[in-house]
From TrEMBL:
Protein name: Extracellular solute-binding protein
Swiss-Prot/TrEMBL GO biological process terms: transmembrane transport
InterPro entries: Bact_solute-bd_prot1 (IPR050490), SBP (IPR006059), SBP_1_CS (IPR006061)
Keywords attached to this entry: Cell membrane, Lipoprotein, Membrane, Palmitate, Signal, Transport
Species annotation: Paenibacillus psychroresistens
Pfam family of the protein (one): SBP_bac_1
Signal peptide (UniProt feature, chain positions): 1-21
Family: Belongs to the bacterial solute-binding protein 1 family.
Length: 450
């Protein structure tokens, strides 16, 4: 098995050991997934010495992040940092995920420096490292102080740490227990069982899946997990995406593409009406009201569900791994790193920026992320219990039955996900056949591969 997957599993197992020790009933969520394209061409930077104290003179640093759904929650953490570091002011800019990497790319190209920003590990980090835009954090003492070595190794790029790990969590299927119980549906462990459950729910007059695909990232989040999962684990092609990167493989060579198209059409057909007209928040509302039986997502909507329907949140909903295949043994729990933090190599306030990252890595800040942003974090010693529904995943966590589909994409830099989203939307409305979609994807990659 590839080394990067082993490292990802080390990260996951670390989280499971921590989770097994927690026993508080804290609720939890985080903000959105996926990745787009970004590029930069800036000169490489040297690693900066570790901060020892907050700057004596007042300084303002900029902080941009893609957790716009958790704007107020993140501001609480920033406020606490500013309270403890009164000479540092943090100007926070939350950006909707679908727009985030386009804006980041624009700022980089124009020389508009952002001191601290969130970033996804993998292709996004690799692009900015290659461009020389990220500060090398490898020698910073707070990394080893606040994070396990396996976590740091897993998120290293070219053997160095340019980003600070922050939050992580499962991507699975929330379900309405009453709907399942009333219809006599058991937790589906295979893809066919999932679709059989969806059919039964639809025949009862209920909506099987809450789909908020007006926003691009929920569709991309699903497609860019279903495809690598079936590619690597079912078709046994773990290096497919690396070969795609160099032109050594095509989507047409990958049987998992046809599986993806079958799954996508069935998923779409079992969703709510106007799937491409309802956004993510609308889908969360639909599930919270009990109007949809299932929702494939991370833990991000938990805080909203808790506010909108406390009874559903406390006792009425569960969470199960998405069964991407018909092999029960392969259908493990998807568990991914989410947001990490980086410092611009061009920042003129690196001492303050490093102080900010150091604080974000503490147990105190980690607990605030769990309590307010509602997500698991990598910070040593931080809280781990999220919500009653998430407790249902404990059996998979304790048994180490987890994997990270994104590890198969970690070394790629071609952002084909947006093109796939566009083509899938045409496919849903019969404006493009499956064969045409696959050919179009190969044509697009041929123009963009290295």
């Amino acid at each position: 098995m590839k080394k990067r997957l082993s490292l990802a599993l080390c990260t996951i197992l670390l989280m499971s050991l921590i989770a097994a020790c927690g026993n508080n009933k804290d609720a939890t969520e985080s903000a959105a997934p996926a990745a787009s394209d970004a590029a930069a061409t800036v000169a490489p930077a040297e690693a900066t010495a570790a901060p020892t104290a907050a700057p004596e003179k007042p300084v303002t640093i900029s902080f941009m992040h893609f957790k716009s759904d958790a704007t107020d929650a993140i501001q609480k953490i920033v406020d606490q940092f500013q309270k403890e570091n009164p000479t540092i002011t943090v100007e926070v800019t939350p950006v909707k995920f679908d727009d985030y990497y386009t804006l980041l790319k624009t700022k980089i190209a124009s020389g508009d420096v952002i001191d601290v920003f969130s970033i996804n590990y993998g292709s996004q980090t690799k692009l900015l490292v290659d461009g020389g835009y990220l500060e090398d954090l490898t020698s910073q003492p707070f990394l080893k102080e606040h994070f396990d070595e396996a976590v740091l190794s897993n998120q290293a790029t070219d053997g160095k740490n340019y980003i600070m790990p922050l939050n992580s969590g499962p991507i699975a299927v929330f379900y309405n227990k009453k709907i399942f119980s009333d219809l006599g549906i058991e937790i589906p462990r295979t893809y066919d069982a999932l679709m059989a459950a969806a059919k039964k729910i639809k025949e009862s007059g209920k909506t099987p899946f809450a789909l908020g695909w007006k926003d691009g990232w929920p569709l991309g989040m699903w497609a860019q997990r279903d495809l690598p999962s079936n590619t690597a684990l079912v078709e046994n092609m773990p290096d497919f995406f690396e070969k795609l990167e160099t032109g050594a493989a095509k989507f047409a060579d990958n049987p998992a593409m046809k599986t993806l198209l079958t799954h996508a059409k069935e998923y779409f057909d079992n969703g709510n009406k106007d799937q491409l007209g309802v956004d993510y928040n609308g889908a969360v509302d639909m599930f919270a009201k009990g109007d949809a039986a299932m929702m494939y997502v991370g833990t991000w909507p938990l805080a909203d569900i808790q506010k909108k329907n406390p009874e559903l949140y406390n006792t009425g909903m569960g969470y199960f791994p998405y069964p991407f295949s018909n092999d029960v043994e392969k259908n493990k729990l998807e568990f991914n790193p989410d947001a990490s933090l980086a410092i611009s190599s061009k920042s003129t306030h690196k001492e303050a920026a490093l102080k900010f990252l150091s604080y974000m890595g503490t147990k105190e800040a980690g607990d605030m992320w769990v309590d307010n942003v509602k997500t698991l974090v990598f910070n040593k010693g931080a809280k781990t219990n999220l919500a009653p529904a998430v407790d249902e995943l404990k059996q998979y966590i304790d048994a180490g039955q987890m994997y990270d589909s994104q590890s198969y994409l970690a070394k790629t830099t071609i952002a084909w996900g947006d093109q796939l989203n566009q083509d899938l939307q045409k496919f849903f409305f019969n404006k493009m056949t499956g064969e045409e979609l696959i050919k179009d994807m190969d044509d697009w990659v041929a123009k963009n591969h290295k």
